[in-house]
């Protein structure tokens, strides 16, 4: 297999669009097929850590995006009732100096819009209302064709499956297997600051409590507060994996929490409820002329705020590999580079569920106390954990 001149991508999420832009900037012809009738991410926030920002910078998007961001001052973990800090690690200027890029909070819709505009400018062809049902590989013609529900086909040298956790491309490559419900649901919402009755700290804050946690942070220069409220549940009965959430149920679930949390929830007028799903590590991420990225191959619990960051890194590295190696070597190299990192962060995200939800009763609380002591007496231990995630620079390595 030689170099690629034309790539078709299933899915115009953050991962698919980043890969499309990186490839188009290398002179590759790119077609992206998206099932939605129009582009636009569901209204919620996204934490973009320095490792992801370095990719967005390299793709030429930093200055355009910077008008929409909020820069948090700390990453904090606080007690759900007393508000006591278990962790208060500096972000802001300190993180920027340490990692060579700032830590941002962004509205998903802003990132998506800027990415889509950059893709259009770089000549990426976006096909909407394009529901992918599978693909067909033709080894003789050295091409792969993406098949749509309406009978259309898009053929190219390579197919990238960036179609999320329920990826049709993954299904054909590796067989039908439902995602695993991770025993957690998440309410998400965005509240205008003008509606708030409490003062929210300018931090990326996790409120840890038994069987639950609550995340709050500012968006769009501080005009909005984004929240994610996570609760453990034994099952998810709805057919859909996302539905409108019941604000009253959310208020009840967090009623006895610290006033900063309960008052914040009181200001929420609407919310969406998500089932949090995952998958076991896949045996491979590529086969023939087909490769996966982002949630299609490594969905993770959002408890490190790294799912989109990993999809962004994937897209960049995949494009780099394709520019440096012949196709089969490029796909092999891509998986060799990306899989260990994404798998590690998947595991770290899962482990954070235990920490944030005080698993193990008294023992769970002791773990948070140990974190607090480490922050005071051995901050380098915590720092080295964060360095491995935020200090990673795929644009250099
Ligand atoms: C509550 C919550 C909070 C999170 N917070 C963060 C955070 O702060 N920071 C962070 O980095 N990550 C976060 N994440 C994770 C992040 O949202 C995902 O990892 C990321 O969006 C994955 O991007 P993706 O492009 O791989 O997939 P997706 O965003 O799922 O995009 C897939 C695209 O493919 C399209 N598609 C799907 N099927 C088809 C089909 N059959 N045909 C055509 N198109 C199709 C979809 O419409 C979609 O546009 C969070 C996740 C959750 C649930």
TrEMBL record:
FAD-binding domain span: 7-347
Cofactor requirements of the protein: FAD
GO molecular function: FAD binding; monooxygenase activity
Listed Pfam families: FAD_binding_3
Keywords for the protein's UniProt record, in alphabetical order: FAD, Flavoprotein, Monooxygenase, Oxidoreductase
Claim: Chaperone is one of the keywords in the record: no
PANTHER family: GERANYLGERANYL DIPHOSPHATE REDUCTASE, MONOOXYGENASE
Protein name: Salicylate hydroxylase
């Amino acid at each position: 297999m030689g170099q690629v001149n034309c790539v078709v991508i299933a899915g115009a999420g953050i991962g698919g669009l980043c890969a499309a832009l990186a490839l188009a900037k290398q002179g590759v012809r790119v077609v992206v097929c998206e099932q939605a009738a129009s582009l636009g991410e569901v209204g919620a926030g996204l934490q973009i850590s320095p490792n992801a920002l370095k990719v967005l910078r390299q793709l030429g998007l930093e200055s355009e995006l910077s008008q929409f961001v909020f820069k948090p001052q700390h990453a904090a973990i606080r007690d759900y009732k007393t508000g006591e800090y278990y962790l208060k690690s500096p972000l802001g200027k300190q993180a920027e100096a340490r990692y060579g890029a700032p830590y941002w909070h962004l509205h998903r819709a802003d990132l998506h819009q800027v990415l889509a505009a950059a893709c259009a400018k770089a000549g990426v062809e976006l096909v909407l209302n394009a529901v992918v049902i599978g693909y067909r590989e033709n080894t003789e013609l050295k091409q792969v064709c993406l098949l749509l529900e309406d009978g259309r086909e898009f053929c190219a040298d390579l197919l990238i499956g960036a179609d999320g956790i329920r990826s049709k491309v993954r299904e054909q490559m590796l067989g039908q297997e439902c995602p695993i419900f991770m025993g957690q649901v998440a309410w998400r919402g965005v509240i205008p600051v003008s509606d708030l009755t409490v003062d929210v700290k300018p931090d990326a804050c996790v409120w840890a409590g038994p069987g639950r946690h609550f995340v709050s942070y500012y968006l769009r220069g501080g005009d909005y507060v984004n929240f994610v409220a996570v609760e453990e549940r034994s099952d998810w009965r709805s057919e859909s994996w996302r539905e409108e959430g019941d604000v009253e149920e959310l208020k009840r679930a967090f009623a006895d929490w610290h006033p900063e949390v309960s008052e914040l929830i009181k200001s929420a007028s609407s919310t969406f409820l998500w089932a949090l799903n995952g998958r076991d590590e896949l045996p491979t991420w590529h086969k023939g002329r087909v490769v996966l990225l982002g949630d299609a191959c490594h969905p993770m619990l959002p408890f490190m705020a790294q799912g989109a960051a990993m999809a962004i890194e994937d897209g960049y590295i995949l494009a780099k590999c394709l520019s440096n190696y012949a196709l089969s070597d490029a796909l092999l190299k891509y998986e060799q580079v990306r899989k260990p990192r994404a798998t590690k962060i998947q595991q770290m995200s899962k482990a954070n569920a235990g920490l944030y939800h005080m698993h193990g009763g008294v023992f769970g609380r002791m773990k948070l106390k140990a974190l607090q002591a480490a922050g005071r007496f051995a901050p380098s231990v915590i720092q080295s954990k964060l360095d491995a995630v935020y200090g990673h620079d795929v644009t250099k390595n």
